[in-house]
Amino acid sequence: MADESDHGFSGGFEYGRPTVWVTPEELKKPTRDRMINLVVAMLESELFGNDDVELICLFLAEDARFNTWFETVNRTTGFRDGEAPALRAEVSHVARRVYEAWAALAVQSEKCGRKISGIESELAALSRVLREEVARLIDIRQGGRS
């Protein structure tokens, strides 16, 4: 039975199968892609400066790079047994962490009347999570087979 140490992924495993984060309803629109929808929601909020926008877009770009890499490997050489679901589970947890940091920022923003001075710690937390998860997406892709 596989566990997360077999793959180096932090997504978590249940009964030898990777657990996948269930996408919240608000991330199921306007597109079918939860990462795009998360980025759209963040950018629509108008809470971010240029550095933050760049980081959010880098997050989306790394997700696209992962998807391109995943589909290329899947089409050409394929993945070992259980590897593809583990990778997808890991990416679902990347989405979850960013969503949770974004949701905390959105809630605090509403509480303080959308004033930047009231959301500084949440903005910093989201930036930290985005950086960590961009690095995680790169690590997954570069640590995998090409």
Distance between the termini: 26 Å
Mean pLDDT across all amino acids: 85
Overall SS class:
mainly alpha
Count of separate DSSP helical elements:
5
Overall body shape: elongated
Main beta sheet, described?
2 strands, antiparallel
Strand composition percent: under 5%
Major beta sheet, strand line-up: 1-2
What is the chain-wise order of helices and strands?
Answer: HEEHHHH
Overall number of structural domains: 1
Radius of gyration: 16 Å
Low-confidence stretches: 1-16
Describe the protein.
With 146 residues, this protein is mostly helical. It is 64% helix and 3% strand. It has a two-stranded antiparallel sheet. Helix 3 (50-75) packs parallel to helix 5 and helix 4 (83-111) runs antiparallel to helix 5.
Descriptors:
elongated, mainly alpha, two-stranded antiparallel sheet, 146 residues, single chain
Quick summary:
By secondary structure, the protein is mainly α. It is 64% helix and 3% strand.
Write the layout of secondary structure elements.
Layout (H helix, E strand, L loop, with lengths): L3 H4 L5 E2 L2 E2 L15 H11 L5 H26 L7 H29 L8 H24 L3
Antiparallel strand pairs: 1-2
